[in-house]
Amino acid sequence: MTPPERRDFIYRHLHEHRTIFINTLVKLMNVSHMTVRRDIRILEEEGKAISITGGVQLNDALRQELPWNEKALIHHRHKRAIGKYAASLVEDGQVVYLDAGTTTFEMAQILAERFNLTIITNDFSIIQYLMNKPQLNLFHTGGQVDKRNYSCVGKSAAMVLRTLNVDIAFISTSSWDLEHGISTPHEEKVLVKQALLEIARRKILISDSSKYGKYGMFRICPLSYLSDIVCDGQLPISIQQQLQELDMKLHVVNI
């Protein structure tokens, strides 16, 4: 591996495991302890990781998201279960928004077999998957292309959304918690998600528990702005109890 490839490898594993020991990285990448420590130091300087005794952990202040194809591999079983449950909340005849993301892509695969739905998305992977389903009405937002996430973002995409009426919107995120709400490290995503909060009758956050406790620089909204949250059962019980006190519904999917 080249140095950038090694650091991407470490960062990807941190998203999956949150903490990794240096000895583990030495074995996985077949490099020296010195090389691993040097890579960790650079990740620290970039604000992506924090050194701990004998290892490294993910910085809860999220600086950058993983590319779409890498995110799709992480916690896939949880995402599939969450996506299946979330799809069951969709009623026939509804106008449905699927936010760009790997969990919403799991939803799309199930909704692909439904009838009498209109699906709106800013995600190219979702629209491509649904393209050969003639029974569905499809609409893509267009806008500035986010190549890492195979989606459209920014002012243009948000302007299109504000011309529409959406019955139920499924919102994705890389970071959320009670203190910071939904947030993102990328400013251009804020306008799209905030537009959804304005136009959708029902607003549902779908996210696996590994994303809880992280936060990005740009705040989208408090969790109280949502109608529902769909998450897996690995979310700590204490957090589940606090979420249930908010004016919205928490759906816990047991894997």
TrEMBL record:
<dbReference type="InterPro" id="IPR037171">
    <property type="entry name" value="NagB/RpiA_transferase-like"/>
</dbReference>
<feature type="domain" description="HTH deoR-type">
    <location>
        <begin position="3"/>
        <end position="58"/>
    </location>
</feature>
<dbReference type="InterPro" id="IPR036388">
    <property type="entry name" value="WH-like_DNA-bd_sf"/>
</dbReference>
<protein>
    <submittedName>
        <fullName>Glycerol-3-phosphate regulon repressor</fullName>
    </submittedName>
</protein>
<dbReference type="InterPro" id="IPR036390">
    <property type="entry name" value="WH_DNA-bd_sf"/>
</dbReference>
<keyword id="KW-0805">Transcription regulation</keyword>
<dbReference type="InterPro" id="IPR001034">
    <property type="entry name" value="DeoR_HTH"/>
</dbReference>
<dbReference type="Pfam" id="PF08220">
    <property type="entry name" value="HTH_DeoR"/>
</dbReference>
<dbReference type="GO" id="GO:0003700">
    <property type="term" value="F:DNA-binding transcription factor activity"/>
</dbReference>
<keyword id="KW-0804">Transcription</keyword>
<dbReference type="InterPro" id="IPR018356">
    <property type="entry name" value="Tscrpt_reg_HTH_DeoR_CS"/>
</dbReference>
<dbReference type="InterPro" id="IPR050313">
    <property type="entry name" value="Carb_Metab_HTH_regulators"/>
</dbReference>
<dbReference type="Pfam" id="PF00455">
    <property type="entry name" value="DeoRC"/>
</dbReference>
<dbReference type="InterPro" id="IPR014036">
    <property type="entry name" value="DeoR-like_C"/>
</dbReference>
<dbReference type="GO" id="GO:0003677">
    <property type="term" value="F:DNA binding"/>
</dbReference>
<keyword id="KW-0238">DNA-binding</keyword>
